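Example record for the data management plan.
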Amino acid sequence: MIALIQQSKSLNDTMPNMKSWIYILSISFGLSNALAQTAEGKPSGYELMTSKQYGNCIACHDMPGVQGLVSNFAPSLKGVGQKFSAQELTQWVVDARRFNPDTLMPPFGSTHGLNLVRPNRVLLTNEQIALVVSSLQSFR
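Corresponding structural encoding:
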């Protein structure tokens, strides 16, 4: 790139080349970030539950393995694996309104009955919900 700058006679001659290099570098860095995220693997159910970008269950629930400040806004998740079946836990995570229409828990697998959802997609995919349920089942 230095050779290109030295060979150019004016800034106007250099700009198209610089724009090309910036474009190529931005594509390269974006691709490397995507590859790095893929190489890291998918988050576990527990990571989905404790991540602010996904489930963020710890914002309302006390969870096994979480240290420090814990929430007591919603029921503790300790022991839910003994109390509920995988099917019940799945239904609860997908849309807790099925069990309690007045719940404040967001529907992680449904947009039914919600207004102004942008973008119109669920918070967690079916695969992610299955991982969360698997983690919930381990809380005995």
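Summary line stored alongside the record: Residues 8-41 form one domain.
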